[in-house]
Amino acid sequence: MLIIAVSLAAAMPLLLLLGRSRLGGAVLLIVWTLAYGGVSVGLQTWMIKAAPQAVEAASSLWVAVFNVSIGLGAPAGGVIVDALALQGVLWLGGARALAAALAVWSARTREGLR
To answer: Are residues 93 and 14 in contact, defined by beta-carbon separation less than 8 angstroms?
Structure first.
């Protein structure tokens, strides 16, 4: 999860700098796609490992949280695009992914997983 969050934190702002060329844009889009593709599976695995005695409940909770996030994220994203323009969304997305990376790193440190 840490690698995924760091990859997303780097890819989004770098799209503003390197995404203007076809090669830079393609490489960063691939990095973002691979990283984001791991979010759902990685977080679901993390959640199941946190509750091994209640896998079904953890899985259903994860599905609910993921769908609510999509449902709330769409209108929130529209408001943010209207307020910040597309460049601001990439900076904000990178900052939020960096905050997620710090949260994952903090959780791993507390659990002694380094």
So the answer is: no
